[in-house]
Write a structure and sequence with these properties.
Structural class of chain B: mainly alpha
Largest interface: B-C, 97 and 92 residues
CATH class of the largest domain in chain B: Mainly Alpha
Shape of chain B: globular
Chains: A alpha+beta, B mainly alpha, C mainly alpha
CATH architecture of the largest domain in chain B: Orthogonal Bundle
Helix content of chain A: 25-40%
Number of helices of chain B: 13
Number of strands of chain B: 0
Strand content of chain B: under 5%
Largest sheet of chain B: none
Number of helices of chain A: 9
Strand order of the largest sheet of chain A: 6-7-8-3-9-10
Strand content of chain A: 25-35%
Order of helices and strands of chain B: HHHHHHHHHHHHH
Largest sheet of chain A: 6 strands, mixed
Order of helices and strands of chain A: EEEHEEEHHHEHEHEEHHEEEEEEHE
Radius of gyration of chain A: 24 Å
Oligomer: heterotrimer
CATH topology of the largest domain in chain B: MetI-like fold
Helix content of chain B: over 70%
Chain lengths: 322, 280, 268
């Protein structure tokens, strides 16, 4: 079930949340909407869901114009950042809610709820209340609840934002596996670019309500459409008037005509990487080396080094523009 | 760049028609029950002109009623303020056997009918009461005299200061007080210089509520008062007295005065409430 | 969202004296007098006390008071929730004035409340609506004085309600009405019950406003509080005490029952 938006704009008073946003989401894909706070990603998701109404533009779900459909009728499943559990209902009743609203016969409800609780590994918690669950469990319940009514599209608004790093990581992978099994068109909003790259087939980068770039994780990382996208999606450093990735810089202690001379300012070891801050004509540049490589060079503050951009290619290739 | 995602307002759930219907019903109900009667009161009170209004205030009865009421309210509120702050600190900051019982006891006055309050006080402090009898023998009269009215008024306004101060104390936490103690301040010093200023707005809010309640008590006072003009006739009792004597103008005038005081108290307490909350 | 800083409670300096003084004050002012009422009620024997309560006139007053109070409480649950909804979810010119007005019955003397209602709905009514000396008048007076209770207990809960819950319900297919029925109201129920309990307790004991409006006609529009007052005036303290104890007991039972039900109803 595909989704597409055309020229969607939305303002809240003087604040422009979305500015002429047009995107296409392929049926069965897992797409991530990425951007900093205020970029409009959550607003876009809510417009697709029908929770907010766009000032201008159209939303199509599966080739039907859904722009003016109320959320009840869009066939959309939604998972909120803070889970939005029905506090007064048990886990079972939470998951069964959508089915009960549709007056599904009791036996069918029981079967479907059992199936879903099994899927999210909450079978033993059916008669508990959300307040008795951990954050991760609540989110799994929210997911089961959304999936219970077999939505055509699954939308997740920063679903793991309120969880611990460890739990976040586990659920992220679990979601990807779930998607691979179920193939429901999924759109996930996140401000964590690492999460987006790890989980999504396709990434939509948003800034200040406008689409900056659309592409696969590799596309947007290796061929960013502009400097901002490049710095948002990964570490950058300015070298020779261009923005490059620190790990693309080669460092030697041997003078080289092609390379720029620099003084080492600081050497920091972070896990398996070594970050070297150098001074090139008064400007700071950061290079990133594997630990062994750095060790071999025996770098120390004050040492003379020579910097070159790897492969000699331009810092940015022509990006694939949609 | 805006650093927080502007919270999106959910789409209309109740259709526009439904929203206006609810609003009309709610406001209509309030108008018929509250607004119109109050408006009529003002109209009737000011109806004969400000001159008539003023002259009903300046009768000796009215003036002495005001004085009596102010004295009674002042004493009752003073008592309940001391009790209120003390009880709030005990309930929030201290642990002791029976703390939960104290918590429940403080709320009891709200559930007691004013007439029962009067009866209860007469039974203990009246001429033939347990305490009253003993006092009577020593020449002290409580019931049918000013102290009795103070007791009745204190009874009904008891919870108000406690319930205004306690939540604020709880939300503030005792870190500031702990800091003061580590700096060497004594308990009393800590209380005066740290605790009291931090609850100032909540305290004034509670006092204003208690004052409004005390000025307006009728049922309990009607039982314990001898209605002696200049001694035990309060403003509310005066209204009753004037009505019974078919002096509508005087009754309306005093009623309007009390209503204005009530509205004034509400305005002040609202402002204090929002200020007290902002400090937390 | 309030940040409650949990400070450990300690038995600090002066706790003992403080508790002692507080207990003394409460005892002298509240406990002893109320105890005296119960004691006086049974001072002529329990049978006599019961006889005082069930004598024709007091019994009629009690039945009528309870009946009207129940009806008024039910009306308040509906109107109170409705008003709270409008105050929280709607916006219109003059809303702040309305907010203030809601609290007026708390601050207004009961006799002024009675006078105010009497002038609009009594013999001198400019609207020519005269319900003085009727049971309707009692209901009206009680509606006035109990107005704020349900509104003020429901309002904060409604404000804190997770709007995402309602959005989630809508996305799962629930219509606007179904969302209110299945999600909003169940979460408001504990607060509604609390407000109802407070309103009921206030209603059964009301004196000032009712006595002015109802005419206090025996067997017809005389409420329990008025009957008790008359017993005091006619020097029948036992009868007055017996009925008072009855009222206190009823209030206590209702508050306890609602408290228990509320604890069951509020989870999560």
């Amino acid at each position: 079930m595909s989704i597409s938006t055309r020229n969607v704009s939305k303002r809240f008073g003087a604040f422009t949340a979305l500015d002429d946003v047009s995107i296409d989401i392929e049926s069965g894909s897992l797409t991530a909407l990425v951007g900093p706070s205020g970029s409009g990603k959550s607003t876009l998701l809510r417009v697709i869901a029908g929770l907010d109404v766009a000032d201008a533009g159209t939303v199509r779900i599966d080739e039907h114009d859904a722009t003016h459909l109320p959320p009840q009728r869009r066939g959309v499943g939604f998972v909120f950042q803070h889970y939005a559990p029905f506090k007064h209902l048990t886990v079972y009743e939470n998951v069964a809610f959508g089915l009960r609203v549709r007056k599904t016969p009791r036996s069918d409800v029981r079967a479907r709820v059992a199936e879903l609780l099994d899927l999210v590994h909450l079978e033993k918690f059916a008669s508990r209340y959300p307040s008795q669950l951990s954050g991760g469990q609540r989110q799994r319940m929210a997911l089961a609840r959304a999936l219970a009514v077999r939505p055509r599209v699954l939308l997740l608004d920063e679903p793991f934002g309120a969880l611990d790093a460890q739990v976040r990581h586990e659920l992220r992978l679990w979601l990807r596996r779930l998607h691979d099994e179920m193939h429901v068109t999924t759109v996930i909003v996140t401000h964590d670019q690492e999460e987006a790259m790890e989980v999504a087939d396709e990434i939509v980068v948003l800034r200040d309500g406008r689409v900056q770039q659309v592409g696969s994780p590799d596309d947007v990382y290796d061929c960013p459409a502009n400097d901002w996208v490049m710095s948002f999606l990964g570490p950058v450093t300015e070298f020779d008037g261009q923005l490059v990735r620190p790990h693309e810089l080669e460092l030697t202690t041997v003078p080289d005509d092609d390379a720029l001379a620099a003084w080492v300012v600081r050497v920091t070891r972070v896990g398996f990487e070594t970050r070297v801050e150098v001074d090139v004509d008064g400007k700071p540049v950061y290079a990133q080396l594997a630990r062994d490589a750095a060790h071999l060079l025996r770098l120390a503050p004050g040492a003379r080094v020579y910097l070159r951009h790897a492969s000699g290619r331009a810092a940015r290739d022509t990006p694939k523009v949609r | 760049m805006v650093s927080i995602e502007v919270p999106a307002v959910a789409a209309q759930k109740t259709p526009i028609r439904g929203k206006y219907l609810l609003r009309v019903v709610a406001l209509g109900y309030l108008a018929l029950l509250l607004l119109l009667p109050m408006a009529l009161l003002c109209y009737r009170a000011f109806g004969h002109g400000l001159g008539a209004l003023w002259s009903s205030f300046t009768t000796s009865e009215a003036r002495s009623a005001v004085v009596v009421t102010l004295i009674v309210a002042g004493c009752a509120v003073a008592l309940n303020t001391v009790f209120g702050v003390g009880a709030a600190i005990l309930l929030v900051r201290r642990s002791f056997p029976g703390r939960r019982i104290l918590d429940v006891l403080v709320d009891i006055p709200q559930a007691v009918s004013p007439i029962v309050v009067g009866l209860a006080l007469i039974l203990v402090y009246g001429k033939f009461g347990i305490v009253g009898g003993w006092l009577e023998r020593h020449g002290i009269q409580l019931i049918f005299s000013l102290p009795g009215i103070v007791l009745a008024t204190a009874f009904v306004s008891l919870p108000l200061v406690v319930r205004a101060v306690a939540p604020v104390l709880a939300e503030l936490g005792d870190e500031q007080e702990q800091a003061a103690r580590t700096l060497g301040a004594s308990a009393w010093h800590t209380f005066r210089r740290v605790t009291l200023p931090s609850i100032r707005d909540a305290l004034v809010y509670g006092v204003v509520l208690a004052l409004a309640r005390s000025l307006g008590e009728y049922g309990a006072v009607t039982v314990v008062s001898g209605r002696v003009v200049g001694k035990t006739l309060t403003m509310t009792l005066l209204i009753d007295d004037r009505l019974q004597n078919f002096d509508q103008q005087a009754a309306y005038s005093m009623a309007v005065l009390l209503a204005l005081l009530a509205v004034g108290a509400l305005l002040i307490s609202r402002r204090l409430q929002s200020r007290a909350r902002r400090l937390v | 969202m309030s940040r409650r800083r949990n400070s450990a409670r300690r038995a600090g300096q002066g706790t003992g004296i403080g508790v002692g003084l507080a207990t003394l004050y409460l005892s002298l002012l509240v406990l002893l007098p109320l105890g005296a009422v119960a004691w006086k009620a049974q001072s002529g024997g329990l049978a006599h006390a019961w006889g005082q309560v069930t004598a024709p006139q007091p019994w009629a007053a009690l039945k009528m008071t309870l009946a009207v109070s129940v009806v008024v409480t039910l009306i308040n649950v509906i109107t109170g929730t409705l008003i709270a909804w409008v105050l929280v979810r709607d916006d219109f010119a003059g809303k702040r004035a309305v907010e203030l007005l809601i609290d007026l019955p708390f601050a207004l003397p009961t006799i002024v409340a009675g006078l105010v209602l009497l002038s609009l709905y009594g013999p001198t009514s400019p609207l020519h609506v005269d319900i003085a000396f009727t049971r309707l008048a009692i209901g009206l007076a009680l509606l006035f004085v109990t107005l704020p209770f349900v509104v003020r207990t429901v309002q904060p809960v409604l404000m804190e309600l997770d709007r995402d819950m309602e959005s989630a319900a809508a996305l799962l297919g629930a219509s606007g009405l179904a969302v209110v029925r299945r999600v909003v109201l169940p979460n408001l129920l504990p607060a509604m019950l609390t407000g109802a309990g407070l309103a009921f307790g206030r209603a059964i004991g009301e004196f000032g406003s009712v006595s002015l409006l109802s005419g206090n006609l025996p067997f017809h529009t005389e409420v329990s509080a008025v009957n008790i007052y008359n017993q005091i005036q006619s020097d029948n303290p036992v009868g007055a005490a017996a009925q008072s104890t009855m009222l206190l007991a009823i209030a206590a039972v209702v508050l306890l029952a609602l408290g228990l039900y509320r604890r069951r109803a509020s989870r999560g």
